[in-house]
Amino acid sequence: MLKGKHIILGITGSIAAYKSAVLCRLLVSAGAEVRVIMTPLAKQFITPLTMATLSQHPILVDFFNPENGEWNSHVKLGEWADLYLIAPATANTMAKMATGVADNLLLTTYLSARCPVAVAPAMDLDMYAHVATQRNMNSLREDGVHIVEPGSGFLASGLVGKGRMAEPEQIVEAVKAILSEKKKSLEGKHFLVTAGATIEPIDPVRFISNHSSGKMGYAVAEALAERGAKVTLVSGRTSLPTPDGVERVDVLSAEDMWQECVARFEGCDGAVMCAAVADYTPCVVAEQKLKKGDDDMKIELRRTKDIAATLGANKGGRLLVGFAMETEHEQEHAKAKLSRKNFDFIVLNSLREAGAGFRGDTNVVTLIDKDNVEALPLMSKREVAHKIVDKIENLL
Ligand code: C5P
Hints:
The protein is α/β, with parallel strands linked by helices. It has helices at about 20-30, 50-55, 75-80, 90-100, 105-110, 125-130, 130-140, 170-185, 215-225, 255-265, 305-315, 330-340, 380-395; strands at about 5-10, 35-40, 85-90, 115-120, 145, 150-155, 160-165, 190-195, 200, 205-210, 230-235, 245-250, 270-275, 280, 300-305, 320-325, 345-350, 360-365, 365-370, 375, 380.
């Protein structure tokens, strides 16, 4: 279950940092992609070379590389991660996390992380038992941080008591549990997702289509599946691999997509309509390749059926989410679609925004329902997908 998961491993200045090497190794061998951030003091306890070799990536310590000024973006790291694990976490780092101090890369990344965060405390028994440390750990718990409880036993100081970092194997189990917790929230639900561009044939060689890559829809299907939902992905043309645990139905034309969606919506709890469906299709599809002549050519087009509107008119208690890609009067047009197609909410992306739209890995969207307009900042399509699924969860 850790296969392909993005994990940031934060290491702070504690003698238990020697166990971070084994921890990193276990995460990588379980299939996770691991990026290591160290505090400056952590480098005294375990070398960057060891951690870079085990994680297969250079380790990160500073805000930028002093040699060439290259910026280590804590925002991008925070977006990239599925989980931020700080092991070992010292009393000092936990105190800073609890109060929002951000004086190193490990801490700024904590403030930017949108993923679950876990800490594995490591310190001497008296520091651990101190009322200030316990108060800070309680604050972190209230802030939603997972604490992997330290064990009792022999401590580096020579004393015996509670404070030694949990063993790497236990931390890996805790990581799995945290990631699957998120996964279970939509268990028992079934969603239909449309994605990609439809292909409207003109003749056996040519077609009408659009620039949609399918990335946004595939990210939504993946995010729903990650949270335990059963997902049927009705997909137009795309070159993307099928996300894990998703049932994929390939279609070509808008008419094929309409047929599949209408037939499959019945057993679903909701649908997310991400596909870029052609609005018009050739009235006649030539059986043979059309030969070019000297004159201009006209192709007569007829309207396709609106899949979203059909599902919207028959949705009953089911949830329906739509997309709107606009180039002008964005909110006005999106709100009109919201009511015309009977969506519960609509995801608006404007082609005027940098970093939004076709093909790229990022998007800038606004989530609009009948009462609220929520503008989200630039984020990865995967992150946008999770925001959409968060809203779906709230509405279910
Ligand atoms: O009207 P417009 O095409 O801009 O609406 C966009 C929304 O409607 C998207 O959610 C898209 O997937 C859906 N749609 C559809 N069937 C169509 C046209 C659009 O499901 N024929």
